[in-house]
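It is worth pausing here to work through a concrete case rather than discussing structure prediction in the abstract. The textbook approach is simple: state the sequence, then state the predicted structure, then interpret. We follow exactly that order.
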Amino acid sequence: MPKLISMCGIDCSTCEAYMATKKNDDGEREKVAISWSKQYNAEIKTSDVNCDGCMADGGAHFMHCNMCEIRKCGVERGLENCAHCDDYVCEQLGNFFKMVPVCKENLDEVRKGI
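Step two, the predicted structure:
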């Protein structure tokens, strides 16, 4: 499956929530909800694990993506993802990269092709 790079650089095509949604597999959704609830010390329900990808128009988004300030900014700017932004790398995105450095690698790769 080709990479599907979100606004912040997450590869949606490898995201467990995205894959469970694409398979329409409630068992996988439940596994993700249990795993992520423990990992992120949050209450994530099986019904929360639905996502058609960060940039899907009108599709389902994982609950955090609906509140994500990085995604909100990019959508307001009409960007495909942050790699296409004139302000790349902004402070907010830079702080996110400290937690998830592979996202910077993904967006840097996209920028090479622009």
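Step three, interpretation. The mean pLDDT is 91. Residues 12-112 form one domain.
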